Amino acid sequence: MMKLIFLGPPGAGKGTQAAIISKALSIPTISTGDMLRAAVKAGTELGKQAKSLIDAGKLVPDAVIIPMVAQRVAQDDCQNGYILDGVPRTIAQAEELEKAGITFDHVISIETDDAVIRDRLTGRRVCPGCGATFHVTGNPPRTEGVCDVCGEKLIQRKDDAADTIAHRLEIYHSETEPLKEFYAERGLLRAVKDTGGIDSTNAIIMDILGK
Ligand code: AMP
Fold it and tell me: Which terminus of the chain has a smaller tally of CB atoms within 10 A, N or C?
């Protein structure tokens, strides 16, 4: 059983590391960002409500997020654990998860400088089909502009535009970063300095997990 949270600014590599660890430990990654983008793509009522908030880099209300996560972790494939990516995003969300009896073994905070983040998000390309993430120079797909996993054409997320990045970083520092203290008080915080390399950062995380 391994229940993890990945914390860190947008573009720190949470999704990339979560994908590697999901595969290594055979546990699912629960990304609220991916779930919301899927709802937008499917054109559901929830997707319609969330779209403008996501595009503007603003947070979607807790009343949407918490039930979405609670329902997801209750599914069968989460019995041996799971990785949360992009949630909790605020102290209020962390408290709500605690109230719902959703517990964790480790909270891995990937520490990255804002300047690095700006560059990384500008070069990020994502697959609208399967959610796989690439970077034009740091983690390029085998064929330029095409997803390695499912072959769809890669796109740039609308919220990876320069002015939206600045706003998302601001929200990270004011709303999400206080979670480090919240989980440190509970003895769960594991800070990992971003090495700049996917494999070398992964090695540090695996070590923390004792894997
Ligand atoms: P992400 O893929 O984690 O960067 O999330 C993309 C966007 O989805 C965010 O900028 C928010 O608009 C929304 N979002 C994702 N997760 C959450 C969350 N836990 N709470 C509120 N909004 C969220």
Answer: N
57-90 per-position pLDDT tens digit: 999 999 999 999 999 999 999 999 999 999 999 9
**Residues of the chain with pLDDT > 90: what percent?**
99
Q: Which atom of ligand 1 is nearest to the CA of 14?
A: 3
Name the catalytic one among 51, 89, 120, 125: 89
What gap in Å lies between CA 143 and CA 98, rounded to an integer? Answer: 43
* 89 catalytic per annotation: yes
Verify whether residue 157 is a known catalytic residue. Answer: yes
Digit-coded pLDDT (tens) for 120-150:
999 999 999 999 999 999 999 999 999 999 9
- C-alpha 124/C-alpha 202 separation (Å) is 19
Pocket residues for ligand 1 (CB within 6 Å)?
10, 32-33, 36, 53-54, 57-60, 65, 86-87, 89, 93, 159, 168
Q: Please, what is the average pLDDT of the chain?
A: 96
* Residue whose CA is at the smallest distance from ligand 1 atom 15: 33
